[in-house]
Amino acid sequence: MKLNHVDMLQTKGEKFTADNVSYPAPPPPISACFPGDAVPFGSRDSIRDKILEALKKDNVKVLGFYGMGGVGKTTIIKEVAKRGEAMNLFDEILMAVVSQDPSIRKIQDQFASKLGLSRDEVWKSDTDSVRAGRLHEKLEKTGKVLVILDDLWKHLDLEAVGIPSPDKHKCCKIVITTRRKDVCDQMDCKNNSFSVPILSEEEGWHLFEKMAGVTSAEVRHVAIKVAKECGGLPLAIVVVARALKGKNLTRWEDALCQLHASTPTNVEGVHMNVYSRLRLSYDYLDGEEIKHFFLLFSLFPEDSNVSIERQMRYGMGLGLFHQGGLGGTIKEARKRAHSFVDILKSACLLLDGDEEGTVRVHDVVRDFCISSIASKGQQHVFLVKPGWEFTEWPEIDCSADYTAISLANSNIKQFPCGIDSPKLKCLVFDGRNQEVNIANSFFDAMKELKVLDVSWVRIPLFPPSQGLLGKLRTLCLRHCSLGEMEMIGDLKGLEVLSLNNSEFKDDKLPKGISLLTGLRLLDLSDCSDLMIPYGILSNLSRLEELYLAERFDKWEKESEDEIYIENSRRRERYASLSELKSSSHSLTTLMGIHVKDASLFPKDLFFPELTTFRIQIGDGNFYHKNYSRSKAGLMVDFGGISIAEDHWICSLMKRCDYLQLSQMGNMKRILYDFNRDLKTLVVEDSDNIEEIIISEEGEAEFPQLKCLELQCLPKLASFCNVGKSREPMQSQSLFTDKVRTK
């Protein structure tokens, strides 16, 4: 009976996977999403306190506050949310950024993420109305709810989103922020709306002094005048102060002259002084490369979380990183891009994104980029349109000489015969999973195009005119369904090719890619069921970074023939690991490799420059959450086979921040050296292991180690043997005072 019970439990256990054993941890409280405290100001504190008092009243259902762009409305509402949470006024606080071009679906997703609904796969495919019903039902059962709608530009249908009417659901309260007072009236908060004024002169100077770090007496008297020129607008104060921080007296005096002489731009909802102050901050950026890099962030829709990696790949194509464009590595270009981002954050021209590896642009700053820099200059002229406004390609002003065009979330299904923009260098088109037809002559006049990003569409045929794109360096075809595209081999100058999350004809990577011998980055991540034909990887001898689908394992044994005979039938050969030898000395990044049969891995395949990788060897069914987050992760199931100390696997083991080993045969010890950046170490199922590490130094330190798992190691005597002894060890304390972790 017990054996039958065990069999039953094992059968049930096999149905569980890593995805359904448990639910993900609940989202953090809203206070964790808004780290740090705002600079205290009497004018702001009084508004915050009035809103909190109003929210305590049963008869107040909808509140609003309005003010010009850059006056600090979002900062105030975040403080309201944090105080409301601390005071336990609500059971749930939800916040969504609406923006000028509201998307019901985007607002729903922001709420669903907080409520846990987005974890349901069905949520993604549901219609807006079905999602609204689910949100409505969830909120009605939640109790006291505060819904914050930030940056509202016009009336929003709450029922269409799924927000219960405050009149019907007495526990639901709504707060909106807007630049226009009439929006407060439209949302029925006329009697409960608050105006957010500019800062007083004293408050403005206090903020300016804090941001600029004014310490010099001779600079101080000029700084006070500069602060006044910012007109009490927090956004203008912050960007100007950061731009001038650490500058000498001459630069301060020059800035004051510029602010006196500048011609303000009056845009709806934006204070007339803000743009000229942003212009000063932009002008003070050191170098044309970082200025151009900054402007690229305006190509994306309002309030987008913009991937820094994506921007780096654009910058590579446009030659914005000297190291990357003049013989340096992509790794160096990425460092340069992150350095640019840090500088732009310090200047308050970029904000932290809501997702790791992303940033956001304040909508006022984005508008400034488009209307004041990239529409009137000669070096950069951008056309940025929300694509959902069009069903056909927008009319192009031939006299504008656009250098960049961006159409996001577009419904366009037919590309025109051509675009008369001979100076166009960057073209970005994001669709809505619709099929698009690209005219054969579409690219004919784009002789200067360097970056092309066409994503979220189905493309049955790539036109032959793409062969005219002799200067194209970066091509992104992300989340696409791609038909015939062998003509891609004509793009001889291509260096960056992003095909992540895309599907291919017959699930095979186009052979034309083998002709792209100058390719330095190939991204095939999340390309499910992909097969790579033999001969493609071996031709990419300059490849520095290769991204494959997680645990890509479709590798074949090395053979001299390109055709395999299998069951008396000829079939095409696919990629072997030996093909990586051609680029082994240039590869710095190799992500997604899984080799089930260790014999497929050539013994003479070394990667001397490899620093970023995720490689799994063997058919072990092990997995650890830290592996997917590692920069350098290695899993090896030796299958009972021992390896020599000079084996290539050992060289990778010494570079890992994640290392998982099992079934190590007769091996008694593992490492004779170790990586000080090691964060996760898992050793398991090895009958003969006596010690994990031998250190020839006086002490062994593991300053980054966060996770250590040792299991099924019956002969383990010590974690680390400090000294040169290689003799069998006697049982002792697993960790001695010679082993240090933090």
UniProtKB/TrEMBL annotation:
Organism: Dillenia turbinata
Gene3D superfamilies for this protein: Helical domain of apoptotic protease-activating factors, P-loop containing nucleotide triphosphate hydrolases, Ribonuclease Inhibitor, Winged helix-like DNA-binding domain superfamily/Winged helix DNA-binding domain
UniProt KW Transcription regulation keyword: no
Gene Ontology terms: biological process: defense response
Span of domain NB-ARC: 48-214
Protein name (record): NB-ARC
Keywords on record: ATP-binding, Leucine-rich repeat, Nucleotide-binding, Plant defense, Repeat
One Gene Ontology MF term: ATP binding
Protein family: Belongs to the disease resistance NB-LRR family.
